Amino acid sequence: MTSSPPNASLASKPQDFSLSSLQQFIADSAGKKSPRSKSGTPEGSKSQNLALQVAHNLRFQHEWTDIRMHFRPSDRTTASSLPRPMISGMPPRRLYVHPDEQIEVLRKQREQGKAGWPDLAAEREWVLPTQLKETWTLRRFAEVFDALAVVPAEGEGGAVFSNGTPKADVPAHGSDGDGAEGEMSKWRKTQPKRLLLATVDDDSTVVYYIIHDGIVKPRQN
């Protein structure tokens, strides 16, 4: 009688090294979109893969549309470079309402005899992909804000998802009742720049925080 080694059955069993859908998406996107160095390897692949992971989370978990990735500073700034790849996109609903705009919206609702809170037009948002282990200072945040316009200009950045187009059947209204989705409101123009700080943990959990470039009035409940 011959005995086989204890690990023979395990060794003979084929192992599954297939990529998850997220890993495959990141690999495909990095291969197609990464600027390459002379050695043929993607430049800033770690920061770009982090941005792609956040973009994936925004698209499929939070239903953002028209998600774009930015590698260069906004044309309306004097910055020479972006500290890292940035994301911009359209959330399904408004993420932030300035306290002064909130007062005006409630006043107009009262004047029109309406109750409740209206559906305000969504606004395009900047997203800064980061990892939980990173250390951020005011100087680093200032470098990012200096390279960004208030909102991305039309045509800036490259599309990440071919199917990430805004939904045409979702009504949206500005605070004055006739705003259109994606347009910059008068409140956005006069407010400090803002972005969403996307913080990714080791377990792929992503948490978002609204960050302003300066002091803003506290929101009212």
From TrEMBL:
Family: Belongs to the SEN15 family.
MF terms (GO), sorted A to Z: nucleic acid binding; tRNA-intron lyase activity
Gene Ontology BP, a term: tRNA-type intron splice site recognition and cleavage
Domain tRNA-splicing endonuclease subunit Sen15, residue spans: 53-149, 189-221
Protein name: tRNA-splicing endonuclease subunit Sen15 domain-containing protein
Polar residues: bias regions: 37-48
Organism: Hortaea werneckii EXF-2000
Pfam families for this protein: Sen15
Keywords in alphabetical order: tRNA processing
Presence of the UniProt keyword Zinc in the record: no
GO CC term (a single one): tRNA-intron endonuclease complex
Region spans: Disordered: 21-48, 75-94, 161-187
